[in-house]
Amino acid sequence: MSTAEALDESEALTTLHRVFGYEAFRGEQEAVIEHVVAGGDAVVLMPTGGGKSLCYQIPALVRPGTGVVVSPLIALMQDQVDALRALGVRAGFINSTQDFDERRTMEAAFLAGELDLLYLAPERLRLEGTLDLLSRGKISVFAIDEAHCVSQWGHDFRPDYLALSLLGERWPDVPRLALTATATHATHQEITQRLGMPTARHFVASFDRPNIQYRIVPKADPKKQLLSFLSDEHAGDAGIVYCLSRNSVEKTAEFLSRNGIEAVPYHAGLDAGTRAAHQSRFLREEGLVVVATIAFGMGIDKPDVRFVAHLDLPKSVEGYYQETGRAGRDGLPSTAWMAYGLNDVIQQRKLIQGGEGDEAFRRRAAAHLDAMLGLCETAQCRRGQLLAYFGQDPQSGGCGNCDTCLVPPDTWDGTIAAQKVLSTVWRLERERRQKFGAVQIIDILLGRRTAKVIQFDHDQLSVFGIGEELTEGEWRGVVRQILAQGLLAVEGEYGTLVLTEASGTVLRREREVPLRKDPPKPTASRSSAGS
Ligand code: ADP
Ligand code: ZN
Predict the structure, then answer these.
(1) For ligand 1, is residue 303 a contact (CB within 6 Å)?
(2) Where are the transmembrane segments (predicted)?
């Protein structure tokens, strides 16, 4: 680089090089940072892993004062702050995990102007003490992370977020930045409105990764299927194979090695030295395959990963997107390949049921799983589904670079079935002002007089028993698939089904609803498939 260019370099870019050690900005980062450094408000929608943090960290470093980051993820604050401190950034947090002295120290550092970044939980900002503290220091920027929490209709609504509009009133001269990874157009509107950011500029990064080919195959003999996928299409390529358990990671790595593919395992059960060695081989060598649990991949920036294969179902579409997103960062053709079977569904359901967390947590996990299943079962463009999941408009007519576009699966016309589901939800919502989950909707369709059906007089609904032509399992498939198509939504901690804007197009017969036939058959015993 010539001296002239170096002098021309913006302070933001210098900070990117000097503090973070990265070469260039990604996607919308530069535009966002320039806008905020200049004092503008911004709403940023970027996929997870897209690099949202730098969008506020760099303005916080470039502008005078402390950047205040509002984040609901208290559990992550310590890690975030540690990572920043390791880079020499003066970062701290104030939250309920601290004792009085720790909090006092942090407050003093803020007032003395010794902090570049201060992380706060949203509930802190309801305390007059906190607001008073903030008004006695100098603030460079407010970053509101996970901004979709302000949406009362979303899964993650946090009442404390509603109070954040006050930041703009009290600090009209401090730029504000609202960031989120998942937002429909409606949520975006709500963010702008409820946070009181009418003049904010919107930066919407595309979630599309056009060079990644998405494929999901029915699982039969997964290791053999993987082997032929690798030898047919990716011989000598670097890639990642994700498995759920440490045991299957070990076995799969061994199996591939025995069959002439250079593969190493990576999971949290291996000692740190082995893990580091395998990771650095992966980064250094050209054609190594890492078989790993999801512990592998965070912060790994290898541009020429040619494939990501899943032998087990990810827990959510977000996870799938993030993991497959590690392929093809260099923009060259890459494959996201997954083998999926009914046993995956059962396994994941069991994990949710037997797992930690309260009822609300489990329901949310189930809703995430259902969306992932919808992606597996779709008869439509996989990329389109992914984009729609993140609230982005898919390309009409399909992408031409996923399995369902390349080899369209058999489908049946599910329009009437979808209408039956949607009218049942509609009757409950509009006539009864009630919301119910899938079980109740299906019981109504099947005309079952269960205790709960009787209790709510649902046998009196005109839709009671109109769905006897399908089995319960088939109805679940219909519900799952229309959920995945965005024709129906899941809401709240009880996982109730609610209509979406798109539901109307089906109810008014403005569109057809093709559904995929023959869900992937289980490979092992059918008897265990009771879910
Ligand atoms: P998000 O908050 O959007 O999920 P992060 O801010 O955590 O994403 O960034 C994801 C990863 O990408 C991190 O490991 C981060 O260091 C890296 N990253 C972000 N921006 C860049 C960049 N311009 N160059 C290289 N790596 C980057
Ligand atoms: Zn497609």
Answers:
(1) no
(2) none
- Find where tokens 């003999």 sit: 221
210 CB less than 6 Å from ligand 1? no
What pLDDT is attached to residue 63? 97
Q: Which residue has 């205790």 as its token pair?
A: 451
- The closest residue, in CA terms, to atom 16 on ligand 1 is 299
Cβ neighbours for 300, distance < 8 A, ≥ 6 positions apart: 279, 282, 283, 326
52 C-alpha to ligand 1 centroid (Å): 7
Lowest mean pLDDT among 168-172, 300-304, 356-360: 356-360
Burial 434-453 (b: 16+ CB within 10 A, else e): ebbbbebbbbbbbebeeeeb
Query: Tell me, what's the pLDDT at 182?
Result: 72
CA 330/CA 34 separation, integer angstroms: 25
Extract the runs of DSSP E, i.e. beta strands, from 476-527.
488-491, 496-499, 514-516
Mean pLDDT over 181-195 rounds to: 82
Cα of 408 vs centre of ligand 2, distance in Å, is 9
| Beta carbon of 301 within 6 Å of any ligand 1 atom | yes
Q: Is the Cα torsion angle 148, 151, 152, 153 positive or negative in sign?
A: negative
Shortest-distance Cα residue to atom 19 of ligand 1: 51
Closest C-alpha to ligand 1, atom 15: 51
Average per-residue pLDDT for the chain? 88
Kindly provide the residue ranges of all beta strands, DSSP E only, lying in 388-495, ordered along the sequence. 411-413, 488-491
